[in-house]
Amino acid sequence: MDGLVGSVKTAFKAAWRRADITGFRFHDFRHTAVTNMQRSGIDHLTIMKITGHKTLAVFKRYNTFLEGDLREAAHRFNTYLTLAHHGQLDDSHKSLINKGAPVAQLG
After folding, report:
1. How many CA atoms, within 13 angstroms, populate the side-chain half-sphere of residue 47?
2. CA-CA-CA-CA torsion for 97, 98, 102, 103, nearest 10 degrees?
3. How many CA atoms lie within 13 A of 59 on its CB side?
4. pTM (2 decimals)?
5. Using CA atoms, how far apart are residues 66 and 15, in angstroms rounded to an integer?
6. 3-state helix, strand and coil shares in percent for the chain, rounded to the nearest 5
7. Which of 14-23, 80-89, 91-100: highest mean pLDDT?
8. Helix, strand or coil for residue 27?
9. Are 16 and 24 contacting, i.e. CB atoms less than 8 angstroms apart?
10. Of 86, 80, 82, 84, nearest to 98 (Cα)?
11. Alpha-carbon span 24 to 11, nearest angstrom
């Protein structure tokens, strides 16, 4: 298995040189995968199982947060609270909240 990983890394390094890409490490793919899984709504414990992270402290170093991530979280929480306040929270609305649907569409 190490031979395959080594040959893949070697191939990527050669491609980066030909494309004149600098400052990129093969390991950056792991950071990107963790961030994309988090943004897609997969919970951190599941991501940790997929990626093999044993501790939350190490996992946190791999996840990247942007301002838009925080806005999306605030929007989803606001939607949840609005629905709960109006007694409209049921299974069909939970799936819409997870997809980030605006409150106006939840009706």
Report:
1. 22
2. 0
3. 17
4. 0.56
5. 29
6. 70, 0, 30
7. 14-23
8. coil
9. yes
10. 80
11. 14
